[in-house]
Each structure stands twice: as C-alpha cells, then as structure tokens.
Amino acid sequence: MRKVLVTVLLVLTVLSLFSAVKIAVILPMTGGISAFGRMVWEGIQIAHEEKPTVLGEEVELVLLDTRSEKTEAANAAARAIDKEKVLAIIGEVASAHSLAIAPIAEENKVPMVTPASTNPLVTQGRKFVSRVCFIDPFQGAAMAVFAYKNLGAKRVVVFTDVEQDYSVGLSNFFINKFTELGGQVKRVFFRSGDQDFSAQLSVAMSFNPDAIYITGYYPEIALISRQARQLGFTGYILAGDGADAPELIEIGGEAVEGLLFTTHYHPKAASNPVAKKFVEVYKEKYGKEPAALNALGYDAYMVLLDAIERAGSFDREKIAEEIRKTRNFNGASGIINIDENGDAIKSVVVNIVKNGSVDFEAVINPDDLK
C-alpha cells in the first residue's frame, strides 16, 4: 500500500512539473477587423516572452479566432471555458464582441481582461470583466473638446455604424459634449462592410461642416475619407481609436492625410521605463514602431499576471478582485489604474496622419474636460 502511495505521489509530482496555466486569448485574427487582432496578439506575445510563468507555473496561451463576428466570439468563449478549462480570458477588441463574451465569462466566474473594448456596457454590472483601456464617455468627450476648442470646429457631421455598439456609444458621447459646448451636429448612419457612402456624404456636405467625425473602424473610416475628399470636402476628418491600424493608411492613401484620431498610445508619449523598453523590444522584434493595440495587448497580459501574483493563488474570484485593485501600474501604454467598476482611468492621446505615417499630436487628461 505504501509503495502504491509513493508511486502515485511521484506521478502527481511529475505531472505538476509539466502543468500549465491556460489563458485564452480571444481575438479577431481573420475577417473585417483582423488587423486589430494581429496587433493585440503581437503585444501579448512580447509580454509572454518576457514573463512566461506565474506563481511557478508555465503560462499557456490558447489563441481563439472570432473571425470578426459576435457569434464566433461567444462560441470561442464557451470553448475556452468548457473545453480548454482556461483560468482567465484576454479579449476581445471590438466592444460588440466583448459584449458577447462578457456574460459567459461572468456566469462562469472567469476573469476577463479586454485590451481595447471601450464601450462602458462591457464591464457594467459585472465583477469578473475588466479592461486596461479608457472608456468611450471620456474618449468621445475628449474629441469633442479637442474639436471645439483646439480646432475651432463649430459644425460637425457624425458618421455612426449602426451595427457596432462601440460606434453608437462613442457617437452619443461626442454629440452630448459637443452640443453642450455650443456646437451643432448632423448625424448620418452606415453599416459595417458598406462600400458606397455617397448618400451619407451628400447629406453631410449640405450641412457645410467644419469637420466629419467617423466613429467606426478603419476599413469604413478610410473609405469614407476617400469619398469625402473626392467630393471636395476640405475640412477636418476625425475618428476614434477604431482608426488606429496601419491599414487605415493603406486603404485611405492621401485621403487620410491630416486625419486626427483619439487613441490610447503613441511611442513618443512613452514616459515610464516599461513603456520605453516595450518600444525598443517591439522595434527589434517586428522592425517597426508599436501602435496602441500592440501596447494594450502587452498591458492586458501583464495586468492579469500581476493580479494573479497578488492573489497568491489561482482562485478566479480573488484574481478578478485583484485586477480591480490595480494601482499605478507601469504599462506599455502608460500608468494604469483600474477602478472598482473594472474601468481603467487614463489619458487620451490624439494622433495625426502625417506624411503617410501616424504622428503624435496631443494628450487630453481627465482634468481637461472639467
């Protein structure tokens, strides 16, 4: 009996040496917004290479593709939890996709950290879902203040993608702040995947706007910009963080020159040692400067592992609690503080497309909106 017990203990010891902590990474690796998924994944890989273990266990990343679809996002979450038995989830990028995952994570009490889903509903009323990015009420208001005060825009046409919760919410927050400041707004609507925006642009041009604000994602932002310029629009073109992908310039070409967009990051704004090191490592690995989603992917992984270490165990509830106790965390995208609602309190960066690349323009802090 004792020999059997010793044998069992030896087997368990050997198995423990090869055990791994599984973390699901749920991203749009193919489909309409696949560029977002690839950028987040690059950042996560750098973080994983830098910190491959937690509490003495190897971290295994389980990458699941949502194909840029809400239904696939929900399916991926169910598979991650039921089949892969993951400890936690990193994902998604699009708010609509995270909104499909969040109820599943919450019901199963699995900690979830989204790198870039900015719609406030993603975390609202939930204990296990948090984020390392700012939320749209701040992003929308920040662009409204920047457009009205910095650019002198008084009349703006807002293009809203009715299929994206992110776009609908961001549009509303911008409009509320811009009209509060005294600006005038005209709103037009489109759908993800649309190619022809002549009808919306006809309405927009008749309003004689100082600026066009497009709250969707980079494929439509680029196409709307091209068609607007072709019709002779010479005012400002503005966007949210959905514009932050290299494909914006690839698709938009000269039409997106001068486009201004709010986002989470620019390498020139890197101030803390972690942020500066991330820029160096990323450039060495990929041969180019990092973008916001690269940094946010890195941060999502590092914040999650930091929370696990502070929890001192693999207890999911404790991990979720510790994520929301994150304070003054030095991340690649800047200093991260996560509040009791799971939302990160951070500044907004304004970038500009200049000479065929993305350059730094300004920083808007929470105090600037008061």
Automatic annotation (TrEMBL):
Residues 21-347 form the Leucine-binding protein domain. Transmembrane segments: none annotated. InterPro entries: BCAA_transport, Leu-bd, Peripla_BP_I. It comes from the Bacteria. Keywords: Signal. It holds the Pfam family Peripla_BP_6. Gene3D superfamilies: 3.40.50.2300. Belongs to the leucine-binding protein family. This is Branched chain amino acid ABC transporter, periplasmic amino acid-binding protein. It comes from Thermotoga maritima (strain ATCC 43589 / DSM 3109 / JCM 10099 / NBRC 100826 / MSB8). The lineage of its organism: Bacteria, Thermotogati, Thermotogota, Thermotogae, Thermotogales.
